[in-house]
Amino acid sequence: MSADGQIMDSSSRTLDNLEKENNKNGSVRQVLLDGCVPFSHQVAGHKCGINNTGVLQHPDGTILKQLQTPPRGPREMNFYTQVFAKDCTDKKLLDLQQHLPKYYGTWRPGESPHELYLKLEDVTRRFLRPCIMDVKIGRRSYDPFASQEKRDEQISKYPLMEEIGFLLLGMRVYQIDSDRYISHDQFYGRSLEKDSIKNGLTRFFHNGQELRRHAVSLIISKIQSILRWFESQTQLHFYASSLLLVYEGSPHRVNGSKHKPAEPGTEHQQGEPQSNSNISHEALSFQSSLTHSHPYCHNVQHERNANGKCGGSVEEKDEEIGIGDKKQFGQEEAVEVKMIDFAHVFPSDNPDESYMYGLRNLLSTLEQILKD
Ligand SMILES: Nc1ncnc2c1ncn2[C@@H]1O[C@H](COP(=O)(O)OP(=O)(O)OP(=O)(O)O)[C@@H](O)[C@H]1O
Ligand SMILES: [Mg+2]
Question: From CA 174, how far away is CA 208, in angstroms rounded?
């Protein structure tokens, strides 16, 4: 770690590189239950998974987030289940799907069936050198049912939340010259004040040589699209929820995808029936490219229509690209912005002003970066 709290690391991709890293360093990286490994692109959050490893990556490339203790874990699971319900007819929820990682149901390790995980799309998956930032959104990090103690604790963590409306929880930024990542943790985010928050955000877009202005503007339009969803709905309020921002740090154009199919024999078939973890990585991507939805849509969320598309949900989107896509993955498409972390989502009957305040301030700060 450097003097200003930056952490340098050189990890680039997950499963492919794990093998190489393991061999190179002579130290075997932990392979956990059912072939799952710690997710190497986690930039914030709890380390509450198996052996305190936080978010895990399944051999099929999906992310596994262990259900937290009640009521948070079940609340998050219910939220994902509701939004991606096969029989969902709620237009707002159907619209919301495009802003979330795809949800593939729950998963239990065959070797440890008492544990329960949410199985999610890895938002960083199609990137060669993903630059990732987790930004907590809203003026309050506590929900309406929080105890006074919890409120005080949350406020004391970042008293400026009320005024700024967002908090950088963590980031990893690829540096071209050194071929390494610089990381900043939650303490860096909490150190940012009104007059330094723009510089803090700017760091996320600087690759050591230049400011990635195009990535800034692409991310702005994705956030605007999320803001439009919030402006059109009154039924849900989100507390302590985050946006996960990702852009491509690699200077090289990526042809289709960086991903290799999982090694034969690395697929694991344990788990609950609904998790269906026995689809190969290649099949997963190919199916994904056909459906523009998640690879397990036959058993979790959507019905397919005669064209093989999942019906009644999201419009086709440019950013959803799998290995089988004919379309090349150019820099124009090389960003993702997804909402994550739904342990504190509650029904409501009025607009989520707190979340929208955060989004608008985040947008105006990003726009300011472009003007400078
Ligand atoms: N679908 C995803 N794709 C890629 N990375 C993810 C995904 N979900 C989570 N992550 C990574 O894991 C981190 C933690 O995730 P998340 O915020 O959902 O958990 P948490 O903060 O531990 O949960 P909670 O705040 O509910 O206790 C994120 O900052 C991000 O780096
Ligand atoms: Mg979080």
Answer: 8
Q: Is the CB of 135 under 6 A from ligand 1?
A: no
Nearest to 15 by CA among 52, 48, 64, 60: 60
The alpha carbon of residue 288 and the mean position of all alpha carbons in its chain are separated, in whole angstroms, by 18
- Interval 108-120: pLDDT, tens: 998 889 999 999 9
- The domains of the chain are located at 7-254+329-371
Which of 76, 341, 344 has the most ligand 1 atoms within 8 A of CB, as the residue to mutate?
341
Q: 329-366: buried (b, 16+ CB within 10 Å) or exposed (e) per residue?
A: bebebbbbbbbbbbbbbeeeeeebebbbbbbbbbbebb
Strand 180-184, strand 166-175: pairing: antiparallel
Q: Say whether the peptide bond before residue 71 is cis (omega within 30 degrees of 0).
A: yes
- What Å distances lie between residue 241 and 67, 166, 293, CA to CA? 16, 10, 23
What is the third-level CATH fold of 7-254+329-371?
A: D-amino Acid Aminotransferase; Chain A, domain 1 (3.30.470)
Q: What is the C-alpha to C-alpha distance for residues 138 and 129, in angstroms, rounded to an integer?
A: 29
Distance 16 CA to ligand 2 centre (A): 26
Q: Which residues surround ligand 2, an ion (CB under 5 A)?
A: 45, 341
The predicted-structure confidence for 209-258, as pLDDT tens digits, reads as follows 999 999 999 999 999 999 999 999 999 999 999 999 999 999 885 444 44
306 C-alpha to ligand 2 centroid (Å):
39
CB-ligand 1 contact for 236 (6 Å cutoff): no
- At 128, the amino acid letter reads L
Predicted confidence band at 191 (pLDDT cuts at 50, 70, 90)? very high
Ligand 1 within 6 A of CB of 74: no
Q: Is residue 336 within 6 Å of ligand 1 at its C-beta? A: no
